[in-house]
Amino acid sequence: MMQLKIAYRTEMIDVLKGETRQPRYLAINPNGTVPFLCLGDGRTIAESNAMLWYLAAGSHLAPQSNYDQAMAVQWMIFEQTRLEPNISPARFFTTILPEHREEKSAEIAEWQRKGHQGLVLLDAHLSKHDFIAGDRYSIADIAVYGYTHVAGEGGFDLSAYPGVMAWLDRIAANPDHVGMNEVSGASVPKARYRRVGVK
Ligand SMILES: N[C@@H](CCC(=O)N[C@@H](CS)C(=O)NCC(=O)O)C(=O)O
């Protein structure tokens, strides 16, 4: 939303405190997951990739051709099935809640094994392409960047993937890039952002 200069307000929900399971949050999002997008008119969107497609529609971040759109969907599904389910729990029990690392060591090893299978495929793609879908930066890069750039916190050594490493640097060097810690908990002053149609 910052890249598209869309005004928004962030409300932090603490997963570790179980806030996603509390009636107050379930009344807003029955799925009980974050992230969750509430539009100004009361409509809502779950799933990060659905939000990306909605927000980017008609903008420079939306893949243009039919083929690039299909490639974006393909890699977003890849991210949700091959990367996120492995990197996220490995990172959770390695870095976010490390006190359970020992008892979870067998599962962490399995998440890492499967996560590496995904990273090999991603590296092969990014060794031949500068961006995930098409020849320019798009929501497909944003989606795949999310967990890939914190894979090290899940015990993944990304130095084995030069294509991925070069792409991570390319994305972070984008002048519009907004780092994760620059948005967490941020309540962005509306005056700084032009409202461009969250309808
Ligand atoms: N596929 C979803 C993932 C949503 C998800 O699993 N969120 C986790 C945190 S990353 C969550 O809300 N967990 C809290 C819970 O299940 O109570 C997306 O990409 O938005």
CATH architecture of the domain at 66-172: Up-down Bundle
Question: What's the pLDDT, averaged over the residues?
Answer: 91
The CATH class of the domain at 66-172: Mainly Alpha
Structural class: mainly alpha
Number of strand elements: 2
Helix proportion range: 40-55%
Largest sheet: 2 strands, antiparallel
Oligomer: single chain
- The shape is globular
What radius of gyration results from the CA coordinates?
Answer: 18 Å
| Biggest β-sheet: strands ordered side by side in the sheet | 1-2
**Secondary-structure element order, N to C:** HEEHHHHHH
Number of helices in the DSSP assignment: 7
What proportion strand? under 5%
In the CATH hierarchy, the third-tier topology of the domain at 66-172 is known as Glutathione S-transferase Yfyf (Class Pi), Chain A, domain 2
Unreliably modeled segments: 186-199
Bound molecules: glutathione
Straight-line distance between termini: 13 Å
Question: How would you describe this structure to a colleague?
Answer:
The protein has 199 residues and is mainly alpha-helical. It has a domain of 107 residues: Glutathione S-transferase Yfyf (Class Pi), Chain A, domain 2 (Up-down Bundle), CATH 1.20.1050. The protein is built from 7 helices and 2 strands, in the order αββαααααα. α3 packs antiparallel against α4, α3 runs parallel beside α5 and α4 crosses α6. The longest helix has 31 residues. The protein is globular, with a radius of gyration of 18 Å. Glutathione binds next to loops.
